[in-house]
Design goal:
The protein is of the alpha+beta class. 38% of the residues lie in helices and 18% in strands. It contains five helices and six strands, in the order βββαααββαβα. It has helices at residues 33-44, 54-64, 76-88, 118-137, 156-172, and strands spanning 5-8, 13-16, 21-26, 94-102, 105-112, 149-152. α3 (76-88) runs antiparallel to α4 (118-137).
Length: 190
Amino acid sequence: MTKRGWHTRGYLPHFDAERFQFVTIHLADSLPQTILTKFEQERAHGKLEHFYDREFQIKIEAYLDKGIGNCYLGFPKIAEIVVRSLRMYDGVRYDLRSWVIVPNHGHILLKPLPGFSLSSIIKGIKGNTANQANTLLGRKGKFWHPDYFDRYIRDQEHFNKTVRYIENNPVKAGLVLRPEEWRFSSAYVA
């Protein structure tokens, strides 16, 4: 059974519907609890209106773009595992429109298809890729952060801005000069 509307798994609130969603997933060590605690303290002191509002999302994404942590997604074989997983269920469980995998996180723009919830889709992507990546790396333990950030797409303008944001993420992070140069992105041109 698919969850619809607002729900939480005890971490972040999520909105699940058959509409396009902008999702950010990140590695377990890319966003330390100390940073989340710092942002929570800022919220408590009125520097952030809501803990999960757009301003919070911007702060998180800016922090992720610094490339903190082991950055396992920066290893081409690991990034390829995630790309294959994203493409595997495109048109089956979801409609995938834009995506990028950078060294410590990924952004995905997708719409769940009937019968599939966003949470089950993300759980499948993360579970499958974590097992393969840990095996390849010869390690055990958490690979992905247990939750994800999602934002539903309101209209065509928001959709277009989101695609631009996703495709320009490697440029913003200083990894390439043009979006089409980043191999692990829907913008890539061989």
